[in-house]
Amino acid sequence: MEVFSGRPRTPERHPPPGRPRERRASLLDVRSAAGQVFLLQVVIVALLVVATVVGMILQAARDALQQGRRASVIAAQSFASAPGTAEALRSRDPSAVLQPRAEAARKRSGMDFVIVMSTTGIRYTYPYPGEIGKRFVGTIGPAVRGRTVVEQAGGPPLPAGRGTDVQAVVPVTDSRGTVVGLVSAGLTVRNVAALWLPQLPIILGSGVAALALATAGTTLVSRRLRRQTHGLSPVELAGLYEHHDAVLHAVREGVLIIGDDGRLLLANDEAARLLGLPKDAKGRPVAELGLPEPVMRLLSSPEAVTDEVYRVGNRLLAVNKRPAYPRAGRGGSVVTLRDTTELAAVSGRAEVARERLDLLYEAGVRIGTTLDVERTAQELAEVAAPQFADLVTVDLLDAVLRGWEPTAEGWCQLRRAAIGGERRMTPVYPLGEVITFSARSPQMRALQEGRGVLEADLRRARGWREQDPERSRTALESGLRSLVTVPLRARNVALGVVNFYRTAGSLAFEPEDLAFAEELAVRAAVAIDNARRFTREHAMAVTLQRSLLPRGQPDQDALEVAWRYLPAEAGVGGDWFDVIPLTGARVALVMGDVVGRGLHAAATMGRLRTAVHNFAVLDLPVDEVLGNLDDLVVRMDDEERAGDAEGDHEGVGVTGATCLYAVYDPVVGCCTMARAGHPEPVVVRPDGTVTCAGVPASAPLGLGGYPFETTELSLPEGSQLVLYTDGLVENRAEDIDVGLERLRRALDGSANRTPDETCQAVIDALKPSPSADDIALLTARTRTFPPSRVAEWEVPPDPALVPSVRARCRETLRKWGLEEAGFATELIVSELVTNAIRYRSPPVRVRLLHGRCLICEVSDGSGTSPRLRRAATTDEGGRGLFLVAQFAQRWGTRYTPRGKVIWAEQVLHDGTSAVPRLAPVDFLLDHLDDSGS
């Protein structure tokens, strides 16, 4: 009898079953049917492999246990029955006799242990001697009674390692059958479990082969499905079917599919409604559906049809027919039906709406192409006629045409600004005439009510006819029949009215036409108002700029001057010029250009022109004038930026202004010039040679800190100096060198022309059309003082020689025929020379110039300027400059590199000096009386 015990010796440990490697990428998309089948096959193969391995492991373990039981029983019984075992147990030291035998038997039998013990379970043998003498772990009760026990048990460590053991315990009997001891033999389970490992590669290989076959089959199925479903998944196929079915029955067009045998395969809801098909029409022959003969014949024939119209009941159906499967070669056809009963009326309205939209688009493109009020009004008339009306007239307030702000007071009088359409149809009022509309006229009603007025039949329009009965009768006789008048309003301000007329040969205006006319007028009014505002700003800027430019030529002897100024069509810029008489018969020529347009540029130009005047009056050198002007522009630019930061005004900087400053001295025939970023002047010599002046280029004004180089040019008498701004020679489409070459060609042959003729010739040759920039042109022909009109001599530094200076001055004036100016001139020269000698600043020179005025100049080497003051009664001096100021028209001081020049001018009238404000004696007495008071 066998007794089994389930108590394990140690915790059972099995090697983990082999896990299939995770696949890095799916062979097929699991969202597709083929992918799902493939995934199912992979799962099945994996389950089969796992089940097989598990079953094999369990079966191997079971077989190992059975084999272990048998081997354990045989080994234990063999050792127990071995000769000498019973006698050894009764010996005095059983372990000494049985331990070698047991170990030898264990090794021969392949057991993991052979243990001999007493009937009380005390071990006499053990693979590890240290365990001898200890109690046996296992069941020994049945063995003591003479029975064999086979069980699974655990005990002390064994050579085979720790694990679950199968052990058998048998009794050892003597010759009388008495149990004198026990023998236990056993094996560990892990040693026998290796029996199933050789079969594992076969199982795994079979699984891999099955998986490969599944993959190949699934791939083939997937390719076939993809070809047949065009790569769509089942969900997509179902959704596609649902969408097609929904669209098929929701579309407002009938759809029929007819098979090659003439049977109706499909008809959507709209087709059933249009044809009145019965509910059981699907699958029936077309001939049995009760359709009209033409429709039935059309559906039964295989011919293709495009937009053929058939009557079915009270409907007109547009029919299209095409083969159902043109690529597959199968028969059948697809027929579409569209109800066109209301198409004619809808098409007519749609065509009108389309034409109106096209006209509005054309109006947006064509109206407002220029900033001219009258041209914009004419564009409105040309756009609306003849597409919308046969005749169009535009009447604007005079204030609008002038660029002023319109007011309601101006409604009583409007001026006809534009006429469009057939001119042979006589309008009520001609172009340019001022019209006074009556209170009951449609135009005045439109202005007062702020909306359009429709007069469908002018013959019944009493207010229109009462406006001017005679002209109204003429207009009706010429064919005018219908009128729409709409106010032109922008920014809630009326600018005028536009009148749309139709003749007897056209349809009368309807309310829909009134709405369109109002939309057209709104768009045109914005363009007209923009043109009006530009006209106002342009006029203001032109007025301001022209007021700041020279209005006439100043009196001077050095140059014969002519100029031209042409403002740009797009807006006034900052171009400016000036001719400034200086002391010593010299003249300064200025040409400048300020960046920008409009009022700001014009105002900035005025500030710069005033500054140049002030700097020129100080008789500063040419480069210092530009330097001071540069500092001024920098300060102005900083002020503008500060204004921007505070949000006070728009503020546009003036950085980039250019300027050319030249000073011509007719006495020596020399011109000193410098330019700050300005185009170089051109010189026309007396022999006709045209050359550039050769003035070095310097940085524009406003950059700050850059020096300005000057050049001196000797100009023979009769030379022409041409100054201009970049608008004359620059063109976006051409290089500036091309413009300069054109200027040179225009100046060829100018030697015999007057400056005015030269200006006109240059403008005629170079003026662009249209003008995108201002053009300023200045031409100056040089003159020189004849030697006979110049007297100059040096004065030794001796006060005793002053009378001789007066005498020489008197002699010079006598030669010039200016005896009457002798007393004042002698007094002036005497005072100036005495002052120069007194302060010891040689060399002292005197120069007299006889031109439009008599100029007296005394130069010395001192840099100190005298100061005018009123002397006290007790003062011995201090009255010289006071006398000079009284007898001279103007006087002053200018500085030279070698000192200073004190000059005084006396105006000559008919060759004589002007009468002094006080007689000399009376003046002196009066001066002395004032001093003593």
TrEMBL record:
GO terms for cellular component: plasma membrane. It is a multi-pass membrane protein. It is found in: Cell membrane. Residues 240-280 form the PAS domain. CDD domains: HATPase_RsbW-like (cd16936), PAS (cd00130). InterPro entries: Bact_Sigma-Reg (IPR052016), GAF (IPR003018), GAF-like_dom_sf (IPR029016), HATPase_C_sf (IPR036890), HATPase_dom (IPR003594), PAS (IPR000014), PAS-like_dom_sf (IPR035965), PPM-type-like_dom_sf (IPR036457). Its main location: membrane. It holds the Pfam family PAS_8. Keywords: ATP-binding, Cell membrane, Hydrolase, Kinase, Membrane, Nucleotide-binding, Phosphoprotein, Transferase, Transmembrane, Transmembrane helix, Two-component regulatory system. GO terms for biological process: phosphorelay signal transduction system. Gene3D superfamilies: 3.30.450.40, Histidine kinase-like ATPase, C-terminal domain, PAS domain, PPM-type phosphatase domain. Residues 9-22 have a biased composition (Basic and acidic residues). GO terms for molecular function: ATP binding; kinase activity; phosphatase activity. The chain crosses the membrane at residues 38-61. Residues 1-22 are annotated as: Disordered. Signal peptide: none annotated. PANTHER family: STAGE II SPORULATION PROTEIN E, STAGE II SPORULATION PROTEIN E-RELATED. This is SpoIIE family protein phosphatase. It comes from Streptomyces argyrophylli.
